[in-house]
Amino acid sequence: MNDLSTARLLLRPMTVADAERVAAGGPAAGERWAPGFPSPGERAAATRFLADCATSGDPTPFGSYAIRLRADGLVVGGIGFHGAPDGRGHVTVGYGLVPSVRGRGYASEALRALLRFAREQGVVCVHGDTDLDNTASQHVMTAAGMRFVKQDERLKHYRVDWDGRVDDHG
User: Fold this and answer.
1) Which of 33, 66, 70, 83 could make a disulfide contact with 37, Cβ separation 3.0–4.6 Å?
2) For residue 61, with 0-12 CB atoms within 10 Å meaning exposed, 13-18 middle and 19 or more buried, which class applies?
C-alpha cells in the first residue's frame, strides 16, 4: 500500500517489522525518529497491531501509520485505525505526536487525511475519543470535521458520519 500524503506529511502504513521496532523502542538503521517517539501510546498501538497480525492477519489498510514530515522523513508520531470496519461500516481512530511538534496543525492534517482515506474505502462512520482534560485532542478532532457526541466519566467521544444517518448509540 502507498503512503497517504498531505501538504506537509506522509502517513506510512506500518509493517510487522516497523511495529516490532516501535514496540521495542528502536528505529531501523538510517531511520530518524523525533525525540520522544515512540510514546507509550505508540508502543501500545504497535503491540495491538502485532497481535492483530498474529490472530487475524495484517489489517492493512485499517492498521497503523507512522506520521513523517515530508521535508526530511522524520517520524513525529502515529495515527491509525483500531481495526477493520465493523458490520455497520464503523471504525475507530487514534493518533499521537511527539511534544516537540505539537501545536503546528500536524495532528489535524494527519487526521483529515485518514478520514478522507476511510471514506474512500467505504467507511460510513469514524469514532474517536479523548480524555476529558485533553482539549488539544478535542480541537484536533473538531478541526478535522468530527463532532462531539457524548461524554462519560473518563472520555469525550467524537465521530463523523457520511451515510446521512446518526446513531449515537454506537
Assistant:
1) 33
2) middle
Please tell me the pTM assigned to this model: 0.92
Give 159's strand partners.
127, 147
The C-alpha cell at 44 is: 501500545
Cα gap 167→2, rounded to integer Å = 33
Question: For residue 155, with 0-12 CB atoms within 10 Å meaning exposed, 13-18 middle and 19 or more buried, which class applies?
Answer: middle
Using pLDDT thresholds of 50, 70 and 90, give the confidence band for residue 102. Answer: very high
Per-position DSSP letters for 76-99, written without gaps between them: EEEEEESSS--TTSEEEEEEEE-G
- Domain 4-161, architecture per CATH: 3-Layer(aba) Sandwich (3.40)
Q: What percent of the chain has pLDDT over 70?
A: 95
Each domain of the chain, given as residue ranges in start order, spans: 4-161
CA atoms in the 13 A half-sphere facing the CB of 54: 9
